[in-house]
Amino acid sequence: MNIQKINITNFINNKPAPTQPSFRSGAKLERSPKEDTFELKIGYVNDLHGQTNNMMRILSGIDGDIILSGGDNDIGDEKNRHVHDATAKFLNLAGVKATALGNHEMDTKQGDLKETASKFNGDILAVNIKQEALQNISKDDIETFNKTDIKEFIKPSKIVEIKGEKIGLIGTTPVDLTDRATHPDYHKDCKAEDLETTTKLIQEEVDKMKEEGVNKIILLSHLGIARDKDVSSNTEGIDVIIGGHTHELLEGIEEGENLIYSKTGEPVIITEAGKDGKHFGELNLTFDKEGVIQKAQNNLGDASLYHRNLVHQYMFNEILGKPEQVGYIEYAPPAPKSLLEENPHANFMCDAMKYEMNADIGIWNNNATRNYFKKGNIDSSDIKEIAPFADNISVAEVSEKTLVDAFKKATEISYNSIGNKPGLLAVSGLNYTVSPSKKTLVGMNFVDNNGVEHPIDVNNPSEDKKYKVVADSFIMSWGADYDVLSPKEECTEYPFNKAYLTCEYIKHLNKPIIINQTGRIKYSD
After folding, report:
1. Helices assigned H by DSSP within 2-138
2. In 150-170, which positions are buried (b, 16+ CB within 10 angstroms) versus exposed (e)?
3. Backbone dihedral angles phi then psi of residue 498, each to the nearest 5 degrees
4. CB neighbours (10 Å) of residue 233?
């Protein structure tokens, strides 16, 4: 099938916005016009990661004939119940019709995910997730991990009707779902199919929809941009991919970047609106009568330019609790752009944990830092968005050797993994040196409360020397991407988290806060 390529031109978006800032300028693609066209406006989000303040801002600006999500709306395990409920409230208020199943939706136990899904008026879609039959799972595992049949609330696809036209929606979860699981034990009975099988399953769903007369099909994908491109060029019948997972900020339309051609030469447009609800999108489309895109315009809205509606604020406070004003930030730097950069925002949180728990060392996972401090008044909800995971604080006596081994592993995998995940660890009471070229830890010092550095021999660390370490339970005992610092049974776990301790720390300091905690990671080559 020989279809003429689309010409892409820049343009200025003149859409009026009398009470709100306009979207960023996008780009337009246009083919030879045909009669009997159909216009569709898609509002979209992805990778919100439970950032409720930004969700409220998005509610003031998002619009469309249909609202869709590329997944990772939520974050955190069953201890984040209030965040899950608030996320479901946002999805309903925004009118989200369907979402892809992201890896962070799987942070929690299956029963908890089912409860959240029951509060969402739309559908969670994933054509490529498989689950072992419950009868093959031990009763102990079913009870301990709150197992349930996820196919009861996760569908492969659905067909909706908009302005008299049928629109097909298909969903995918990431093929590296189990690798990104926060709690791997929760979902040992589940797997995501590989990319080749996922592509075949998507095509099968497309073919079914075509048999039902559907010629406009949208894929809700949490595969990531590279895999979305692969799917686009190796299938036919998909028109749009509402993407996520790799946190790309795809402005406008650019051939080869987010405009790909299918096996039959038809255009496929890919969207992603970054992460953490900082942006949202609006995709305007014109289809011909065969369901081929003739015109398209992709715009991004900056959530920071929109105000939180007081009614929405009240509704979210009813779920999350009214935030407490805790202090004032006099200065805070921009957030780091890479997980290999030192993060002063995360270091400050480590200071809070160390001080409030009277520990020698505080440690936090840089990748879990989901927002950052900003100049001005700060309340408990702002801090919660910096540290949204509700893992309890854990304290343990940790040997020097265990510390060094954990930092060696964290450094190695962070330099060698896609996206540099999980990232170099934020610290308090320590500083350490890494070699970017060798991708390894080369030095470390314990810093006592008087600021005196005590060298640690990273080549021959002591097994007898121990430090009182504070971290969240995920870093301390779950491990996941990191080595376990201390088994759960050897830790003292407290019924509060680092967000709570940071609020207490700021109140105890009782002065304007300057975020400039740097120099704790050094680079040597």
Report:
1. 52-59, 81-94, 110-119
2. beebbbbbbebebeebbbbbb
3. -70, -25
4. 14
Encoded tokens for 164: 């008299």
Task: Summarize the confidence of residues 496-517 as an average pLDDT.
Answer: 97
| β-strand pairing of 492-497 with 392-399 | antiparallel
DSSP 17-44: -SSSPPPPP-EEEE----SS-EEEEEEE
pTM of the model: 0.86
pLDDT of residue 185: 87
Number of residues assigned to the chain: 525
Task: Write down the residue that tokens 């899950």 correspond to.
Answer: 84
State the amino acid at position 149 in one-letter form: D
Concatenated DSSP letters of 308-371? PPHHHHHHHHHHH-PPPEEEEEEE-PPPPSSTTS--HHHHHHHHHHHHHTT-SEEEE-GGG--S
| Span 316-360, pLDDT tens digits | 999 999 999 999 999 999 999 899 999 999 999 999 999 999 999
430-435 vs 521-523, strand pairing mode:
parallel
The alpha carbon dihedral of 142, 144, 146, 147 has a sign of: negative
CB–CB of 388/50 below 8 Å? yes
Find, among 480, 410, 399, 401, the residue nearest to 441 by Cα: 410
**393 DSSP β-pair partners:** 472
Chain position carrying tokens 């995940």: 421
